[in-house]
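Look at one such:
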Amino acid sequence: MVAKKILQQNIKIQATDRQVTKFTLCVPYLDTCPNIDNLIRFLSRNAIQHLVLKLPIRGRPYKLPSSFFTCFQLRHLTLQNCSIPDQPSFEGFDRLISLELRDVTVSSKLLERLISRWLLLEQLVLQISGASSDVIEISAPILRSFDYTGNIRSVCLKNIPRLAKLSLSHREYYVGAGKCNIAKFFESFSALEYLHLNDKINFFAAGAGEVPTRLSYDLYCVKHLRISSIYLSDSNEVSCALCLIRSFPNLQSMEIKVESDDHDIPALESLEVEHFSDVTFNHLREVKLMQTNGTVPGQVSRADENSNRAMSS
């Protein structure tokens, strides 16, 4: 019934002479969604600039028709549960400034090629589900914001000189994968101001398998750090967080959500006050420490006490 109404509305739109520059279709819980091809064909002929397609999450992803690749005026594109077929002759949308892909089936090579051709791209959201051994190389010279959900080892940020906002949500889809080298991962960032690490952060490690006390370089550009989940019982997670905090000397705000299951939490030497003697927070103005469950142990308060000392010095 809903699909029929969509089709009827589509016919009404096509019967008008008005130009449609922005269109949103959100039907994530339908079993089928017919006649989308006709709709996209119509939009491609009417200089569509802002297109959002959030299609049924059940069943096979919707395969985009050839008319989709003629939407040359697109500036904002959001796709969910779609399939992008390879079009060798397709040069990309040269006016695109915002791209959001969630659970979209597309080859890593095609996505890599398209992103590199969209030279005006400023905002990028990628949500990739499922295991993949392929690596997507992101080369976007004026990209300002990147929100990524997936396996961190499946993405390589190569040419991102203007990236100011980065959000990472790691998803582990297969067992036995190696860690991501924390020092190598952050060395290409020169304009990063906002860093959000969601879920577990123990996917970072040094090349030898251990997290360094701090990076071999300081990232003076980072001003805001948010860690949405950290388990104090996981020494590797704690080490990752402390390594980054020590390497961001110009932090202005910091938000950390502590997870605790009230199991025995080992005493962490890295949280003792004396281990922060080389750290100052001269620019830090706002700190949020949140607890989701369990009891936050005394080590956190000692680290917080050291933070207060550093800020007051």
